[in-house]
Amino acid sequence: MEKQAIVVSIAVYEGLEAVRLSGLSNMLDRPRVVELAEMLGYADAADWVRENRNLYAAAIFGGFVADEKEGA
Hints:
Order of helices and strands: EHHHHE
Radius of gyration: 11 Å
Largest sheet: 2 strands, parallel
Number of helices: 4
């Protein structure tokens, strides 16, 4: 199976990137990622991870890409 990046909104991407850069959690620890996203003020990212478990898991290995068409 080919790994493919998952497209997310800019708000979700920024939130996940903030959690990753914080270094406060392994990104595989999904519940902690949700908690940190909320603590850091990224509710959209927390909600997306909570509601898209399978896509989140796929993106951990395939990567995340911000939707560049958003807001256009």
